[in-house]
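Example 402.
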Amino acid sequence: MDRLDGPPRLILVTDLDCTLVDHDDPENTDLLRFNALWEAHYRHDSLLVYSTGRSMRSYLSLRNKKPLLTPDIAITSVGSEIAYGGEESMVSDDVWVARMGEMWNREIVLEETSKFPELEPQPVKSQEEHKVSFFVGREHAVEIMKVLPGRLLERGVDVKLVYSNDYAFDVLPKGSGKGGALTYLLEKLESEGKQPCNILVCGDSGNDAELFNIPQAYGVMVSNSHKELLQWHEENAKDNPKIILASERCGAGMIEALQRFNLGPSVSPRDVLDTENFHVEVLDPAHEVVQFYLLYEKWRRGEVEKSDKYLQNLKSLSSPLGMFVHPSGVEKLIHEWIDDLDNLHGEEGKEKQFRVWLDRVSSSLISPETWIVKFDKHELSVLFVLGCIQMEKYGHVRRESY
Ligand code: GLC
Ligand code: MG
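Predicted structure in complex with alpha-D-glucopyranose:
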């Protein structure tokens, strides 16, 4: 949260499975569209928050499989854990951990829940200190929800029960849940004088319902939302004009919400890339670097013919003095680097699976004529059955003469 000096323009809070991540799309089309939009137009002044039912471990393993950007904040285990920053510098919120421990006792939860034979424990990897999870059908879940909280309260344990997808039943400390964690984060931001201008929450199933209860928030239920969320909406939030059901699935539905609520740019650079004609009206370094790599991707995939005009086009995006600084420290003129692309053209669609996405793009003006743009570049290529995600950190210096 300290990355931004002032209040975020937007705080976008999204569930992962079946919201940002479409498991039915092996190409990750909408996720990649969202990524390019976020890095080009939002990263510099907004906050990205993932809010998932997955444990931290399981979330990190998803990140190894899917092209997920680095969020500013990761809320995991259905709101019972909060961590800030990227993997290499992730810091857990100890105040939140302490709060989760109030009126909570895992042993007592295990003892009382064991009295319901219908509750089938989820695998050990889905159990956490402040989350005890089961599988159970809806009818039984409804009955258990009526009696379990009272029984636990008699023993000094105050819980929140969350039921999702017609099978997942989570027992959590009272103040947690995705809504509890977001409320806590918003209070924290406010106490730091960083109240966001806008909040957008995005979800698809039962454990997301609480997110749509945050009074100031805009909300989008993606078109593939589970009927339990739609029913919750019908019963609890039908008259709230700030909550919509998208007409599009997953990431596309999220982009649709940015547009419908007028929360900022809503056209992904992936949708408007003009390979013939690069055109920079107002210099926006983050946007330019994103576009630059999209054209590079098309070249590598063989989606544009092998013609010098595309390389010239790429050159037109950078000044002849622009430098690449590779993570190894090696520096090279951007124009020389582009010349080297000549033999990387993916003729005949040989590299059809090749994808590039940028993460954590940041830019700063270090002199009236010089920008430094820093970013992580990820590449996904599939060679036969072997898939790999490569990551490189670049400092991309662009010298611009006005
Ligand atoms: C995720 C978690 C699971 C939880 C479910 C619903 O799938 O892995 O433990 O029950 O979300 O919150
Ligand atoms: Mg989901």
